[in-house]
Amino acid sequence: MIWTVTLQPTPMSVCYQVAIQYRHRQRPKVKVVGPALEARQREPLPHVYPGNELCLYYKDEFIGTEDFIADTIVPWTSEWLYFYEYWVTSGVWLGAEAPHAPGVAKR
After folding, report:
1. Degrees (nearest 5) of the Cα angle 66, 78, 6?
2. Which end of the chain, C or N, has fewer beta carbons within 10 A?
3. 35 preceded by cis ω (within 30°)?
């Protein structure tokens, strides 16, 4: 299943087109379709997997057999976009940090 949704994290934010791809019992894959996410000077996008797939949660915080995408992934994506907008202007990521394997998601 691929679902496309428009999210606007704050009234002053742009509207983002987001695609959420989900296969039963697998981790949802979330990407911003537009507008394109931009990195800061000499800094890669934070909290993304290869291909700019968003890193929204740590390990088992989403359980596909128990959690609804609309109640978890969609609000987490909006929150990620808010943190992204703040990071673009300040260089500070407001979201919680979790340990990651080297080179995965946290940059």
Report:
1. 100
2. N
3. yes
Model confidence at 5: pLDDT above 60: yes
Question: Of 94, 83, 97, 78, which is closest to residue 9 (Cα–Cα)?
Answer: 78
Spatial distance between the Cα atoms of 83 and 89, rounded to a whole number of angstroms:
10
Residue (of 5, 85, 72, 103) closest to 40 by Cα position: 85
pTM for the full model? 0.83
| Cα 82 from Cα 63, distance rounded (Å) | 24
SS3 letters for the chain?
Answer: CEEEEEECCCCCCCCEEEEEECCCCCCCEEEEEECCCCCCCCCCCCCEECCCEECCCCHHHCCCCCCCCCCCHHHHHHHHHHHHHHHHHHCCCCCCCCCCCCCCCCC
| Residue-wise pLDDT tens digits, 6-28 | 999 999 999 999 999 988 777 78
